[in-house]
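Could someone model NAP with this protein?
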Amino acid sequence: MDETLAGRNVVVTGGAGALGEAVVDRLIVAGAICHVPTHRPQGSATPIPDRGGRLKLAHGVDLTDETAVERFYAGLPGLWASVHLAGGFAMAALTQTTRADFLQMIETNAVTTFLCARAAVEAMRRTGQGGRIVNVSARPGLDPRKGAGMAAYTASKAAVAALTVALAEELKGERILVNAIAPSTLDTPANRKAMPDADVSRWLSPQAAAEAILQLISPSNLEISGAVLPLYARA
Ligand SMILES: NC(=O)c1ccc[n+]([C@@H]2O[C@H](COP(=O)([O-])OP(=O)(O)OC[C@H]3O[C@@H](n4cnc5c(N)ncnc54)[C@H](OP(=O)(O)O)[C@@H]3O)[C@@H](O)[C@H]2O)c1
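Reply:
Sure, complex below.
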Protein backbone atom coordinates (compact mmCIF):
# COMPACT_ATOMS: atom_id res chain seq x y z
CA MET A 1 0.00 0.00 0.00
CA ASP A 2 1.19 3.53 -0.84
CA GLU A 3 1.81 5.35 2.45
CA THR A 4 3.43 8.46 0.96
CA LEU A 5 0.86 10.83 2.46
CA ALA A 6 -0.74 8.55 5.07
CA GLY A 7 -3.26 10.55 7.10
CA ARG A 8 -1.97 13.93 5.90
CA ASN A 9 -4.39 16.76 5.17
CA VAL A 10 -4.01 18.22 1.71
CA VAL A 11 -6.06 20.99 0.09
CA VAL A 12 -6.70 20.62 -3.63
CA THR A 13 -8.31 23.73 -5.10
CA GLY A 14 -10.00 23.02 -8.41
CA GLY A 15 -10.22 19.44 -7.15
CA ALA A 16 -13.51 18.96 -8.97
CA GLY A 17 -12.00 19.94 -12.32
CA ALA A 18 -10.45 17.68 -14.96
CA LEU A 19 -6.89 17.81 -13.63
CA GLY A 20 -8.22 18.08 -10.08
CA GLU A 21 -10.05 14.75 -10.25
CA ALA A 22 -6.87 12.94 -11.28
CA VAL A 23 -4.89 14.67 -8.55
CA VAL A 24 -7.46 13.93 -5.83
CA ASP A 25 -7.64 10.28 -6.91
CA ARG A 26 -3.85 9.91 -6.81
CA LEU A 27 -3.42 11.66 -3.47
CA ILE A 28 -6.14 9.54 -1.88
CA VAL A 29 -4.37 6.38 -3.09
CA ALA A 30 -1.25 7.79 -1.40
CA GLY A 31 -3.21 7.99 1.87
CA ALA A 32 -4.08 11.71 1.96
CA ILE A 33 -7.26 13.28 3.22
CA CYS A 34 -8.19 15.73 0.46
CA HIS A 35 -10.01 18.97 1.26
CA VAL A 36 -11.61 20.43 -1.84
CA PRO A 37 -13.23 23.86 -1.86
CA THR A 38 -15.68 24.09 -4.73
CA HIS A 39 -17.68 26.89 -6.25
CA ARG A 40 -20.57 24.49 -6.63
CA PRO A 41 -23.45 24.77 -4.17
CA GLN A 42 -24.47 21.88 -1.92
CA GLY A 43 -26.75 19.56 -3.88
CA SER A 44 -25.41 20.86 -7.19
CA ALA A 45 -26.62 19.32 -10.45
CA THR A 46 -23.05 18.11 -11.09
CA PRO A 47 -22.13 16.49 -7.76
CA ILE A 48 -18.54 15.46 -7.08
CA PRO A 49 -18.19 11.68 -6.59
CA ASP A 50 -17.58 10.46 -3.05
CA ARG A 51 -14.20 8.80 -2.42
CA GLY A 52 -14.85 6.69 0.63
CA GLY A 53 -14.61 9.38 3.30
CA ARG A 54 -11.19 10.67 2.27
CA LEU A 55 -12.61 13.56 0.25
CA LYS A 56 -13.87 16.49 2.29
CA LEU A 57 -15.85 18.97 0.21
CA ALA A 58 -16.56 22.58 1.09
CA HIS A 59 -19.32 23.86 -1.17
CA GLY A 60 -19.96 27.41 -2.34
CA VAL A 61 -16.38 28.69 -1.82
CA ASP A 62 -15.30 31.41 -4.26
CA LEU A 63 -11.51 31.42 -4.15
CA THR A 64 -11.30 35.01 -5.41
CA ASP A 65 -13.06 36.08 -2.19
CA GLU A 66 -10.49 36.87 0.50
CA THR A 67 -12.85 36.26 3.41
CA ALA A 68 -14.12 32.96 2.00
CA VAL A 69 -10.55 31.71 1.50
CA GLU A 70 -9.48 32.69 5.02
CA ARG A 71 -12.57 31.01 6.51
CA PHE A 72 -12.01 27.80 4.55
CA TYR A 73 -8.36 27.41 5.61
CA ALA A 74 -9.06 28.43 9.22
CA GLY A 75 -11.46 25.48 9.54
CA LEU A 76 -8.97 22.81 8.47
CA PRO A 77 -7.23 20.28 10.68
CA GLY A 78 -3.38 20.43 10.65
CA LEU A 79 -2.45 21.20 7.07
CA TRP A 80 0.44 19.45 5.34
CA ALA A 81 0.08 20.59 1.72
CA SER A 82 -1.94 22.89 -0.49
CA VAL A 83 -2.25 22.28 -4.23
CA HIS A 84 -3.67 25.17 -6.24
CA LEU A 85 -5.30 23.96 -9.44
CA ALA A 86 -8.28 26.33 -9.53
CA GLY A 87 -8.05 28.44 -12.63
CA GLY A 88 -9.50 29.22 -15.99
CA PHE A 89 -8.61 29.75 -19.62
CA ALA A 90 -9.61 32.33 -22.22
CA MET A 91 -8.50 32.64 -25.80
CA ALA A 92 -9.01 36.01 -27.52
CA ALA A 93 -7.05 38.40 -29.72
CA LEU A 94 -5.73 41.49 -27.97
CA THR A 95 -8.30 43.84 -29.48
CA GLN A 96 -11.09 41.45 -28.51
CA THR A 97 -9.95 41.40 -24.88
CA THR A 98 -11.64 43.89 -22.57
CA ARG A 99 -10.24 45.26 -19.34
CA ALA A 100 -12.74 43.06 -17.51
CA ASP A 101 -11.56 39.99 -19.47
CA PHE A 102 -7.96 40.72 -18.55
CA LEU A 103 -8.78 41.21 -14.89
CA GLN A 104 -10.87 38.07 -14.86
CA MET A 105 -7.86 35.97 -15.91
CA ILE A 106 -5.71 37.64 -13.26
CA GLU A 107 -8.41 37.01 -10.62
CA THR A 108 -9.11 33.40 -11.59
CA ASN A 109 -5.50 32.29 -11.96
CA ALA A 110 -3.24 34.63 -9.99
CA VAL A 111 -5.46 36.02 -7.22
CA THR A 112 -6.86 32.59 -6.27
CA THR A 113 -3.31 31.25 -6.08
CA PHE A 114 -2.08 34.19 -4.02
CA LEU A 115 -4.97 34.06 -1.53
CA CYS A 116 -4.76 30.28 -1.09
CA ALA A 117 -0.97 30.33 -0.70
CA ARG A 118 -1.20 33.04 1.95
CA ALA A 119 -3.90 31.23 3.93
CA ALA A 120 -2.07 27.91 3.55
CA VAL A 121 1.14 29.37 4.97
CA GLU A 122 -0.77 30.69 7.98
CA ALA A 123 -2.30 27.22 8.51
CA MET A 124 1.11 25.51 8.13
CA ARG A 125 2.70 27.88 10.62
CA ARG A 126 0.08 26.77 13.14
CA THR A 127 1.32 23.15 12.84
CA GLY A 128 5.00 24.09 13.09
CA GLN A 129 5.77 21.12 10.81
CA GLY A 130 6.57 23.01 7.60
CA GLY A 131 4.58 22.04 4.52
CA ARG A 132 4.34 21.89 0.76
CA ILE A 133 2.63 24.16 -1.77
CA VAL A 134 2.17 23.42 -5.46
CA ASN A 135 0.74 25.97 -7.88
CA VAL A 136 -0.27 25.46 -11.49
CA SER A 137 1.13 27.76 -14.13
CA ALA A 138 1.02 26.71 -17.80
CA ARG A 139 3.43 26.41 -20.69
CA PRO A 140 2.77 29.98 -21.94
CA GLY A 141 3.44 31.22 -18.40
CA LEU A 142 7.03 30.00 -18.76
CA ASP A 143 7.32 30.50 -22.50
CA PRO A 144 5.18 33.53 -23.44
CA ARG A 145 5.94 33.02 -27.16
CA LYS A 146 3.35 30.24 -26.89
CA GLY A 147 0.83 32.80 -25.69
CA ALA A 148 -0.18 34.51 -28.92
CA GLY A 149 -3.97 34.90 -28.98
CA MET A 150 -4.17 34.34 -25.22
CA ALA A 151 -2.23 37.26 -23.76
CA ALA A 152 -4.39 37.71 -20.66
CA TYR A 153 -4.15 34.02 -19.77
CA THR A 154 -0.41 34.06 -20.44
CA ALA A 155 0.15 37.08 -18.21
CA SER A 156 -1.89 35.51 -15.41
CA LYS A 157 0.06 32.23 -15.57
CA ALA A 158 3.39 34.11 -15.72
CA ALA A 159 2.27 35.82 -12.52
CA VAL A 160 1.68 32.41 -10.94
CA ALA A 161 5.19 31.30 -11.95
CA ALA A 162 6.80 34.44 -10.52
CA LEU A 163 4.75 34.22 -7.32
CA THR A 164 5.91 30.63 -6.85
CA VAL A 165 9.59 31.48 -7.05
CA ALA A 166 9.31 34.56 -4.86
CA LEU A 167 7.34 32.66 -2.17
CA ALA A 168 9.82 29.79 -2.22
CA GLU A 169 12.59 32.24 -1.39
CA GLU A 170 10.52 33.94 1.30
CA LEU A 171 9.61 30.66 3.03
CA LYS A 172 12.94 28.87 2.72
CA GLY A 173 13.71 28.99 6.44
CA GLU A 174 10.36 27.50 7.48
CA ARG A 175 10.49 24.13 5.71
CA ILE A 176 7.57 25.23 3.53
CA LEU A 177 8.55 24.23 0.01
CA VAL A 178 6.79 26.02 -2.86
CA ASN A 179 6.81 24.77 -6.44
CA ALA A 180 4.65 24.88 -9.55
CA ILE A 181 3.97 22.74 -12.56
CA ALA A 182 3.66 24.30 -16.00
CA PRO A 183 1.69 21.84 -18.15
CA SER A 184 1.27 21.91 -21.89
CA THR A 185 -2.21 21.07 -23.19
CA LEU A 186 -3.85 18.44 -20.99
CA ASP A 187 -5.92 15.58 -22.30
CA THR A 188 -9.27 16.64 -20.82
CA PRO A 189 -12.87 16.24 -22.02
CA ALA A 190 -13.11 20.03 -22.50
CA ASN A 191 -10.00 20.14 -24.70
CA ARG A 192 -11.19 17.14 -26.74
CA LYS A 193 -14.48 18.94 -27.33
CA ALA A 194 -12.82 22.26 -28.22
CA MET A 195 -10.20 20.68 -30.52
CA PRO A 196 -11.85 17.63 -32.11
CA ASP A 197 -9.18 17.27 -34.83
CA ALA A 198 -6.14 17.50 -32.54
CA ASP A 199 -3.66 14.67 -32.10
CA VAL A 200 -4.47 13.85 -28.47
CA SER A 201 -1.47 11.54 -28.22
CA ARG A 202 0.64 14.72 -27.97
CA TRP A 203 -1.27 15.96 -24.93
CA LEU A 204 -0.26 15.57 -21.33
CA SER A 205 -2.23 13.06 -19.31
CA PRO A 206 -3.72 14.43 -16.07
CA GLN A 207 -2.40 11.29 -14.35
CA ALA A 208 1.19 12.20 -15.31
CA ALA A 209 0.68 15.69 -13.91
CA ALA A 210 -0.78 14.18 -10.75
CA GLU A 211 2.34 12.02 -10.27
CA ALA A 212 4.55 15.11 -10.53
CA ILE A 213 2.44 16.92 -7.94
CA LEU A 214 2.59 13.91 -5.59
CA GLN A 215 6.38 13.95 -5.77
CA LEU A 216 6.54 17.67 -5.01
CA ILE A 217 4.28 17.41 -1.95
CA SER A 218 5.77 14.20 -0.65
CA PRO A 219 7.58 14.41 2.71
CA SER A 220 10.50 12.79 0.85
CA ASN A 221 10.90 16.03 -1.11
CA LEU A 222 13.32 17.65 1.27
CA GLU A 223 14.81 20.46 -0.79
CA ILE A 224 13.05 21.06 -4.11
CA SER A 225 11.57 24.54 -3.83
CA GLY A 226 11.21 27.41 -6.29
CA ALA A 227 10.94 25.07 -9.27
CA VAL A 228 8.41 25.73 -12.03
CA LEU A 229 8.44 22.34 -13.69
CA PRO A 230 7.77 22.22 -17.43
CA LEU A 231 5.46 19.25 -18.14
CA TYR A 232 5.34 19.45 -21.91
CA ALA A 233 4.51 15.86 -22.96
CA ARG A 234 5.23 15.52 -26.70
CA ALA A 235 3.74 18.89 -27.64
N1 LIG B 1 -6.51 22.03 -19.40
C1 LIG B 1 -5.31 22.37 -19.86
O1 LIG B 1 -4.94 22.06 -21.02
C2 LIG B 1 -4.36 23.11 -18.99
C3 LIG B 1 -3.05 23.36 -19.41
C4 LIG B 1 -2.18 24.07 -18.60
C5 LIG B 1 -2.61 24.52 -17.35
N2 LIG B 1 -3.88 24.25 -16.97
C6 LIG B 1 -4.32 24.74 -15.66
O2 LIG B 1 -4.60 23.63 -14.84
C7 LIG B 1 -5.66 23.95 -13.94
C8 LIG B 1 -6.77 22.91 -14.04
O3 LIG B 1 -7.21 22.86 -15.38
P1 LIG B 1 -8.47 21.97 -15.79
O4 LIG B 1 -8.36 21.72 -17.24
O5 LIG B 1 -8.63 20.84 -14.84
O6 LIG B 1 -9.63 23.03 -15.57
P2 LIG B 1 -11.15 22.83 -15.12
O7 LIG B 1 -11.62 21.45 -15.42
O8 LIG B 1 -11.90 23.97 -15.67
O9 LIG B 1 -11.08 22.97 -13.54
C9 LIG B 1 -10.80 24.21 -12.96
C10 LIG B 1 -11.42 24.21 -11.59
O10 LIG B 1 -11.14 25.49 -11.01
C11 LIG B 1 -12.19 25.80 -10.15
N3 LIG B 1 -12.32 27.25 -10.00
C12 LIG B 1 -12.08 28.20 -10.93
N4 LIG B 1 -12.30 29.41 -10.41
C13 LIG B 1 -12.67 29.22 -9.12
C14 LIG B 1 -13.04 30.09 -8.07
N5 LIG B 1 -13.08 31.41 -8.21
N6 LIG B 1 -13.38 29.53 -6.88
C15 LIG B 1 -13.39 28.19 -6.71
N7 LIG B 1 -13.03 27.32 -7.67
C16 LIG B 1 -12.68 27.83 -8.85
C17 LIG B 1 -13.45 25.21 -10.77
O11 LIG B 1 -14.16 24.77 -9.65
P3 LIG B 1 -15.71 24.36 -9.58
O12 LIG B 1 -15.84 23.13 -10.41
O13 LIG B 1 -15.90 24.13 -8.16
O14 LIG B 1 -16.46 25.53 -10.15
C18 LIG B 1 -12.92 24.03 -11.58
O15 LIG B 1 -13.17 22.80 -10.94
C19 LIG B 1 -6.12 25.38 -14.30
O16 LIG B 1 -5.48 26.30 -13.47
C20 LIG B 1 -5.62 25.53 -15.72
O17 LIG B 1 -5.38 26.88 -16.09
C21 LIG B 1 -4.76 23.56 -17.73
